[in-house]
Amino acid sequence: MGASKFVVGLTGGMGCGKSTVAGLFAKHGAGIIDTDAIARHLTQAGGEAIAAIRAAFGDDYIKDDGALNRAKMRGLIFSDAAAKQQLELILHPLILEQAKVQLRQLQTKPYIILVVPLLPESPAFRQLAQRVLVVDCDENTQVARVIGRSRMGEAEVRGIIAQQTPRAERLQLGDDVIRNDAGLDSLAEQVSVLHGHYSNRQNND
Question: pTM value?
């Protein structure tokens, strides 16, 4: 892509506040690519991934309206590693392709935040980013946030967190870390500081 924009890979465990942080960077003018949003688009009714998912998993995993049955699929992939891998083999190349399209579209932005929840496990996405930013909070905070916004119970949430990259490993991967335990003001302050660094980095590249 020639002299392309500086890209920061934003990651963090479930419920750590990745979307909130991405929203704060957007207010500073950063370009945002959200791979979760791309995945939702690909698996909605008529989405690009639906035919392949139907072929691989059967009609039971597609709702009557033609969209992916997320709750049912989530239950399957957290109990069946092979199914999880199969779903990723369908979705990841499509998400990557769409992310690259968006990268080209966002070249006028000062820098780009690429939100990838599973960045530590996704080498292809890591190659797109020059820096990794980890949003971190303690596990009990994570659990409380996810229960508060979803219909999942504590055991299910802790089970999902246990399957994600361990917190210590994720923190090691991060070039930068934002702590999200102390409310929105603290979060906004940390984002503001990093915005300064990332803008300078882009301008000095």
Answer: 0.89
